[in-house]
Amino acid sequence: MKKTLNINISGTVFHIDEDAYEILKVYLTKISRHFSKEEGGHEIINDIESRISELFSNKTIHTQKVVTVEMVSEIIEIMGLPEDFDDTDNTESHNAFNEGVNNTYYRKKKLYRDPDSRVFGGVCSGLSHYFKMDKALTRILFFILIILTQGAALLAYFILWIAVPKARTTSQRLEMKGEEINVENIGKSVKEEFSEMKENFVKYKNSEEYVKGKEYARKAGQTASNVGKETASVIGKVFGAIFLFVGFISLFGLVVGLLATSRIIGFLPEFLPGAHTGLFIDHVFSNSTATALFISVFIIVGIPLLLLIYAGTKLLFNYTSSNKNIILSSLGIWIIGIILAVTTSIGAVDVFSSDASISSKHIIESESDTLYITIDKTKFANFSESRFEVNNVMVMMNNDEEVLVSRPKFTIEQTSEVKPELFLRQTSKGNNYRSAKDNASKINFQHKIEGSKIVLDPYFLIDSNGKWRSQKVDITLKLPQGKVVFLNNNLLPIIDDIENTTNTWDGDMIDKYWVMKSEGLTLSN
């Protein structure tokens, strides 16, 4: 049993036993060493490997599928060793492969089209090699034959052009000339081709046409370069003007838009006059918050526009400046703008992060079984109508001063106590518990208990210097069983979901007497 290997020679895979592989490896190494430093050595080695692949293919098709030592030795006999055509008398390596072997291999001459000395298709040149005739004489005879056959020979020429293959490889060229296809002739053929190419190139390089062509190419290149520079300059100035126009218009629009938006929504920076506009948002955030957001938005949007203007001036006026420093500085300012916007936004939201409340209880000492609930209409008579309202919070004017007010919420619940009680609960938000409780304590809500009559303010005031922090006032009347309550019609704006046994809507509960029973608040007859 012998170990076999898979090898790839010139793109074809062969199975070869281990001993044959070692011999072939030594042989190809000798070939590579011999030709690697010569001109065209790589092409010579590729042609030799291609020829070896062809011989292996022929033998493995008709016989066995595995390349053996005998096949490798036979191919080495055919191809020959590099030492066989060296100037020095060195036969030691040759004897190492196969002592006394005749390495000459003649192959029957074959007709190919010659691509190296063709006029049209290389047919006549190929025929001259096949019949060992002069190429010029062959072409003359073929021309005469065309005349004598009245063009029939021309048809034969085209048929041969199609049917006869072109001599593409070095082996095919040697076969076309009837020469030995071995290492020596393959190397010699490739060297001759390289030598011929070099001579032709030298001749062409020294020719008048090359000199004229080179000069023409130089002038054409110079002209193209000048035209390209001029075109690039014109295009650059056009884009520069566009960048300047777009940049300045956008920057102007940004400033006008920020100012207009600030005035419309009442969110004005500190450096702008007329900070108060009567709009709700102005009573939520401080002027410093508005200033920080105004500046951050201008930086975030404005820096790219300023860079666009800078690029436009560079293209239009072509001055020298440090692009790297300007871009890095702008990037730093832009990042600062983003950080400012984020921190300001977080701070604006943070003032609503905590909540607190303040509660108070007032016992109603009236001996009457009926309580009358109403609103003091005169309390806010001097206040103007609401200029802006959001979620029951309004901005009113009191003696040319903006006041932030909101409506309380009134409801009724049952209690087990003997006497009625009025509970007030003031709540607010802040950035911590202490600030939230302080905001709740600044809520200004008034009420009066006059015997059996309870008078409530229609609104509660938020501190004049304070901001809206979701302040609320909840009023709860704790009513014992058997007590009756009358709801005045002016209570409708502040009634908040009073539960009753008949599920009567809050708006329909006014101007009626209601008695508290065990099952809940019930309409009294």
Description:
The chain contains 13 helices and 17 strands. With 525 residues, it is α+β, with helices and mostly antiparallel strands. It folds into four domains: 4-98, no CATH class; 123-208, no CATH class; 226-350, no CATH class; 354-523, no CATH class. α1 packs antiparallel against α2 and α2 packs antiparallel against α9. The longest helix has 58 residues, at 208-265. The protein is elongated, with a radius of gyration of 53 Å.
Key phrases:
525 residues, six-stranded mixed β-sheet, elongated, single chain, alpha+beta, four-stranded mixed β-sheet, 4 domains
Low-confidence stretches: 87-106
Return the average pLDDT rounded to an integer.
Answer: 79
Shape: elongated
End-to-end span in angstroms?
119 Å
Counting structural domains, the number is: 4
In total, how many beta strands?
17
Total count of helical runs of at least 4 residues: 13
In percent terms, what proportion of residues is strand? 15-25%
Instruction: Determine the structural class based on helices, strands and strand pairing.
Output: alpha+beta
Q: Rg from C-alpha positions?
A: 53 Å
Largest sheet descriptor: 6 strands, mixed
